[in-house]
Amino acid sequence: MLLPVNLTLGAVLAVLLAVAATVAALAHLGRSRAIAVAGVRAAAQLAVVSLAIGWVVEAVPLLLAFLLLMYAVAVRTAGRRITVNSTWWWAALPIAAGVLPVVAALLLTGLVPVKGITLVPVTGILIGGALTATVLGGRRALDELAQRRGEVEAGLALGLPDRDARMEVAREPASDALLPGLDQTRTVGLVTLPGAFVGMLLGGASPVEAGAVQLFVLVALMAVQAVAVAVVLELVARGRLHRDGTDTP
After folding, report:
1. CA 117 remoteness from chain centre
2. Angle, nearest 10°, between helix axes 116-147 and 179-187?
3. What is the per-residue burial (b if ≥16 Cβ within 10 Å, else e) of 121-152?
4. Residue 192: what are its φ and ψ, rounded to 5°?
5. Which of the four pLDDT bands, split at 50, 70 and 90, describes residue 248?
6. What pLDDT sits at residue 136?
7. Cα separation, 12 vs 208, whole angstroms
8. For residues 92 and 95, what is the distance between their CA atoms, to the nearest angstrom?
9. Average pLDDT score over residue span 75-90
10. pTM above the 0.90 mark?
11. How do residues 126-173 score in pLDDT, each as one tens digit?
12. What is the DSSP letter of 192?
């Protein structure tokens, strides 16, 4: 076992969370309360999920319901991070467009069986990657459109359609959402040993098997995130996903 689950671990986690929140407050980052709440929520949610997984692995209907819950929470989280108006639900499209084809391919090829013990963590990793890419891509695109409104209007004056004028401004900033995944993939094994690799080793797999699983995760995440960013960018460019003047997500 990598970490013993005892009071010492709890105390160390509490101290680290307090340090993170305190540093954010002292540096006036404006996220100290969010950090504290996120840490407490993570502890509670992981405790519940740890118990729930034991049930869902036994029945396909429960497994599917759990996966839908994961997806719904991801959509809500991503959408509300991008905008607070009623268009937030469009975040469902980039997340689904990125995750569903990859999961379907894994199931159809037999690489991942329809078993909760395998499908839940794999799907969770992919949904998490799509969530991050959707949030970063959507926020960067909308921020840039707000700051460079004059360039959009200039494009319209030159005869560009609304979609194309917005796309010219938003495309490059939105693509920055791919950088974290790219950097993680480029530096894997040199800077960090990601969780899938370490988890496989701790589970008794050989280094080669662990490396293969980690490579699959990284490449799958790049595919999921590329699709998610492309779709959220298209939604922003077409005005489906937007902000009102008072939006402060």
Report:
1. 21
2. 130
3. bbbebbbbbbbbbbbbbbbbbbebbeebeeeb
4. -135, 160
5. very low
6. 95
7. 33
8. 6
9. 94
10. no
11. 999 999 999 999 999 999 999 998 888 898 888 888 899 999 999 999
12. B
Count of all residues that appear for the chain in the document: 249
Token readout for 181 is 């995944």
Distance CA 138, CA 148 (A): 15
Assess contact for 13 and 47: CB atoms under 8 A: no
- Taking residue 241's Cβ as centre, other Cβ atoms within 10 Å add up to 27
Which tokens is 16 given? 């680290």
| Structure tokens, 58 | 């036994």
Paired tokens of 199:
């988890």
Name residues whose C-beta falls within 8 Å of residue 201's C-beta, 6 or more positions apart in sequence.
207, 210
Angle at 89 between CA 84 and CA 91, to 5 degrees: 100
Encoded tokens for 160: 């560009």
Q: Give CA–CA dist 86/242, Å, rounded.
A: 9
Distance of alpha carbon 203 from alpha carbon 242, whole angstroms: 45
Report H helices in the chain. 7-26, 32-56, 60-82, 92-109, 116-147, 149-157, 162-175, 179-187, 195-202, 207-237
Burial environment of residue 92 by CB neighbours within 10 A (0 to 12, 13 to 18, 19 or more): middle
Distance CA 38, CA 44 (A): 10
Between the CA atoms of 219, 223, 226 and 230, what dihedral angle is there, to the nearest 10 degrees? 180
